[in-house]
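hey so i finally got around to running the thing on that chain from the lab meeting. sorry it took forever, my laptop kept dying and i had to restart like 3 times. anyway pasting the input first so we r on the same page abt which one it is
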Amino acid sequence: MSVSPQDRAFPVFRRGEQREAFLSLFRQGLRRLIDPATGAPYTEAEVVRATQSGTKLYAHAQARDLLDLQNQQRALFLADQLRPERSSTAWLELYHGPRRNLPRLPAAGGTGEVEVTAAAAAIFVGSTTVPNAAVVRGTSKKGQLFQVFYTATADGAGLARLTMTGIDTGNVTNLLVGDEITFINGPITIVGKGLVVSAFTGGAPVETDAEWVRRMVAFDLYRSGSGNNAELREWTRKSTASIEDAFVYACALNAGSTVIAVVQKRTTTVGPTARIANAATLTAARAAMTPPGSPQVPGNVWLLLLPCVAQPVTLRIYASLARGRVTGWTDTSPWPSPPLGTRATITALASQTSFTLTTTGPVAASAAPALMVFAELTSRWERLAVTSVTGAGPAYTVTLSRAPATTLVVGATVSPDTRRREVIAEAVEAYLDSLGPGEVVNLATSVLAHRALRFPLPADEYPDTAGAAVSLYLQEALGAALSGAVYETAASSPVLPADPTLGPRLIVCGPIGLYPVPS
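ok and heres what got predicted. didnt touch it at all, straight out
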């Protein structure tokens, strides 16, 4: 019999253990019997032959072993259902969810901003009630239906900037900048199509089993009830599937007040602000949590629900990657290779195909080194089509054969190219997405600190400070291709807001410099 895992309340048998136990008992019985043909006890060779593979007795023991394993598997499956982390979808829906009064959250639509041209003073009627047939609506290229969220009026030039939200739901409603909306009603003076100028965020599919289980585990861990911090957090989280989590600051303004900050799910949206709650997400959460309209929070509760405020952080990562390999740096002598604490940045821009790159450290070993630029709007790198690098440093003139898709700007960060750029960017993004917001009062000096500290605590869930743990995410993403990394950041801790009503700061991705470890 094998040793049971610590979380099992009963022994667990491996394949063949029951068969060998049965055959062992039979062998012991044979050794006590007399062979009627010889009048002597059975020899050890005869005992072995009688129980060896291929015999009828062995086949019988094998069948019993398989039957016991099948019955054991049923017991293991049933035991797993008692914990939501292991249970099946059916048990989540029929047992764990109803037992905790935590239904699975339905899908949510994305929200963003659209610019459209119409006659001056044209009115675009909107509503925060979704769906609403009386408001202006439009469809995306893929046929998803959207509506205007806030009523807006075109300016003197006939330009209107509309906040629109998805009537349809799911990841597909997270439209990108440059996508178009075709209006199906509204002012007759609309000219052409609406253009997405601020990426849509918050569109999320039906809550997955893993997301649902996270809420159940928090419910069990913190014992929600009587309007405590845990229950306020849970009520906020279940207001819409767009919310990743909620953070409660009790008495942050004064005794009896509560501040709640929400973080939005990233889903398929890229960029540093994807987790900052949009208008539709905040509206849904406020409708669920803010008295007197809240269906669950009493009318005498003073509650303020806020989005987090993005605090971009500048990262410098020095990685030990193979050189001249598809698993590492593109060049055998990657450049630029600045010393610790510095980045290579664009300091002057002649055009989108010619700029000045300022960096210290070794000079370029190649006349046309492989370079990539970091796009802060998407938190991704793009390889540059370099034709030449001239100059003796620290200012170099870089010439490109074509303009990149990323708009080059003064201050942009340039790094030596690696074909693993997408994997590295996603790993850094995943690390920063594991962080939560900071505090809203000074825990060292404020008299409210003992109550107003963030719930859940950063030590328990969602640490608020960026640190060297990013190297763990990089190691997991790159595996053996990464032999080591040094991590530096220009600012690692969220700053305190001047007033709690301004919302807590959330560290998000700023410019990233990726360089070889200095020799």
